[in-house]
Every structure is written in C-alpha cells, then in structure tokens.
Design goal:
The chain is globular. It contains twelve helices and no strands. The longest helix is centred in the last third of the chain and has 25 residues. The two termini are 36 Å apart. With 231 residues, it is mostly helical.
C-alpha cells in the first residue's frame, strides 16, 4: 500500500540528481482497456520487433518540439503509450534490472503513475499473477532509479517506503541518513516542506490523508533527529 501511495504522489522518486521533479497533477488519461493483462500482452507482442535497430531507445522519448505541438490530451495519451511500451519491455526482459538501468531516464514520475494504474486495474480484476509480476518489476525499477538520486531524496523515499515506526527508525539509524539530514544546508527539510505543500494542494481523498499523515510523522521525527545530530 505504501509503495503504491508513494508512486502516485511522491514525485521525488523520479527526480534526477541535479533537478528533482516537483509534484505534478496525475496523468488524466486512464489506460483505455478493460483488462490490464490484455493491454500489456498486446503491447508486449509488439515490443520485440521494435527493439531491433540503432536508436531503438528513442521510442520511449518524445522531442520537446513534438510535445509542444500536441494538445494536453494527446500528449498525455502519447506519454501513456510510451510508458506502457517500457513497462511491457521490463515485464518480458530476462534481466529486469539491466533493462531498467538502460532506460533509467525514462523511468520517471509518469512511468510510476501509469504503472500504478495498471497495477490497480489488475488488483480490481483479481489477477494475482499480473499483480505479482507488476509489483516485482516496479520494485526493481524503483531500486534502479533510486541509485541515481541525491542522498536527501533517497532518504525521503526510504522513509516513505517504511510502513511501521520500527522500519522508519531503522532507516534513520543509518549513518547515511544522519548525514543526509544535515548536508547541503538542510536541503532535505526544504524538500520535505515542498512535498507537504504539494500533497496539500491535491484533491481530498483517503489516499491524500494517508500520505499527508505519513509526511507529517516523518517531518516531526526527522526534525528531532536533526537536533540530536547537531548536539
């Protein structure tokens, strides 16, 4: 549950070291298919022929000029299609981690939001096999993306992924966490404040409340931790 929440609203998972993302509104176009398994099978059947040839990675990207020429609905649809193709390739890859590393720049906020939608669809259908495979792929994709993020973002991601107080304490007890709290003039806390503000602007629902409660708990605990580190 925590992983799905974070994938939906925690955009910093998808930031680069130099320029972490800010929270943007969710992709409005829900995958237009009655079956998550059917749409992924359909796309997967077309991925293999598209893989051959130089420059094949470009199928996951869209030039700035092309994006600017598209209306918002078409742009969202194009992003959804690109994300679905990447997700399909990860699902059928013999080495998921290696494939994720090869396309790490395309593993971004939209990727996790669209992928989470497919996961929700599979859960609603009761398709345990698809759910398990999607969860495994998203976990690996997140791990590979996490390696590219700056330490403060990694720390916030790890804290968001912690589902219990003991898990959160284990994260904070690592030396890397203690360092991340005080480095770069408190960048971590500026990041945390922005996330709280961004989530606060989202439409009210139960998921928003869960994430906001989690962020507030993290805010309280990390401020206490920073004070103890600075003593």
């Amino acid at each position: 549950m925590a992983q799905a929440l974070a994938a939906d609203v925690f955009a910093c998972r998808c930031g680069s070291v130099q320029n972490p993302c800010v929270l943007r509104r969710p992709v409005s176009a829900r995958p237009r298919c009655n079956s998550a398994l059917a749409v992924l099978q359909c796309v997967t059947s077309r991925v293999a022929p598209a893989r051959a040839g130089p420059g094949s990675k470009r199928r996951f990207t869209c030039s700035v000029g092309a994006q600017q020429r598209q209306d918002p609905v078409q742009q969202a649809r194009t992003t959804q299609e690109q994300t679905t193709k990447l997700l399909a390739e990860l699902l059928q890859a013999p080495d998921t981690a290696a494939t994720a590393r090869a396309h790490v720049d395309a593993i971004d906020e939209e990727f996790f939001m669209v992928s989470s939608t497919y996961l929700d669809m599979a859960r609603q259908e009761g398709n345990k096999e698809v759910c398990t495979k999607l969860e495994q792929v998203l976990k690996i994709a997140m791990e590979e993306k996490q390696k590219t993020l700056r330490p403060e973002i990694q720390l916030l991601n790890n804290l968001m992924a912690a589902t219990t107080v003991p898990e959160r304490e284990r994260v904070l007890n690592h030396d890397e966490a203690k360092t991340a709290l005080v480095m770069n003039n408190g960048y971590f806390f500026g990041l945390l404040d922005r996330m709280i503000s961004d989530v606060g602007r989202q439409p009210d629902n139960s998921r928003k409340k869960d994430v906001m409660d989690q962020l507030q708990q993290i805010n309280k605990r990390t401020h206490a931790q920073r004070q103890s580190v600075n003593r």
